[in-house]
Amino acid sequence: MKPVDRVFTTLNHEEPDMVPCLWAVADGLRRLQEAFRNRELPQDLVGVGSLPETRVVEQCSEYRLLESVFGDVHRISYKVDYGYRELVKPAVSKPEDLDRLEELKLELSREHVKRIRENVERNSDRFTFISHESPFGFAAYSLRGFKRFLTDMVVNPGFAKKILSFGVKRLMEMSRQIIEETGVNAVWVSGDLGDSNGPFVSPRLYSEILEPFDRELCRTYHRLGAYVFLHSHGNLNLILDRIVNAGFDGLNPLDEAENMVLASVKERYGGKVTLIPQPSTYKLEKMPRNLIEEYVASQLHAGAHDGGFIYYGVIVNMLLENADEYVKAFLKLRSYPLQCCRR
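^ thats the sequence. predicted structure below, dont judge the formating
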C-alpha cells in the first residue's frame, strides 16, 4: 500500500498492510535532532504547515519570540531538554481588544499558501495535514491566556463564547482556503484540556461552552473533505464521550502517565475514533534498551487490532542507541497481521 492509502484504510477502521505512523524528535533535543537529521524515519503522515502565520520578533541561542497576525506573542524556550511554549502577551487583554481584532482583515499570504501547496505536492504519496490550535487551545493559550479564559468560562461565559466564536471563525476561514487550494487531507488541532489529575473543565462546561465550537469545526472540515485530529494532553476520561461525539476523527496523545489507558479507550471508542498514541515520555526515557521492543508491542497489542490506529513515535530524551532500537522495534512489529495482537 502507499502510505496515504494505509492511513485511509485505518481511518475506515480496517486493517491495512502495516500500522500507519509518523515520527518526530521531541522539541529542544538538539543532540538527537542532529543525530536523526540524516536518518530516514518512517512517515505515512506528514505535517505540511501551520496556522496562523507568525513572525520572529526576537531570537537568541536560548529562545525565540514569535508574534502571530492576531498580536499574541509566545516565547519558544530551549533552556531545558524539552523546548516549551510560553504566552508572553495575549491578543485579548480586555474586551476592546477583541472588538479591534474583529474589525481587522486577516488574510493568508500567497507565499504561505504556496509553501503548503508545494509541501503537499512533494508528499503526494503520504497523508498530509495542516495544524492549528483547537478552539479551546486558541482561546486559552493565545487569544486570552489560560487562567483568564478559564475564569471567563465560569464568571463571564458570554464573553468566553464570543472569544471562541471569533477564533473558530478565523481559523476556519484560513483553513478553508488551504484545504480548497492545496488538497491537504486533514487538520490537526492542538490544545491541552487537562493534566494528569483530570480535565480543566467540568463535563457541564465542556458541553455548554466548548463542545458546540468543536462540533462546528469538525462539521465544517468534514464538509470540505478533510479529517480532524485532536491533540490534547490530560486525563480526559470524564469528558471523552463528549469529545468523541463532537466529531473528531483521531485522538492524541493518550498518555498512560496521565491515566489514559490505551486498551480501555480502544474498547470504549475504537469503532468511533482513530487512536493516535504517543509513548509515555517519562517511561520511555528511563527504559532499558532490552525492554523497548516489549513496550512497543504492548502499545500495538492494546490498540492496533481492527484498524483505527496510527502510531506516533516520538523520540524523547534517551541514549542514541535506545532511540535507534525504538525505531527498529516498531519497524519489526508494524506489519499486519500483528503477531503482538493475537488474542
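The two ends are 25 Å apart (CA to CA).
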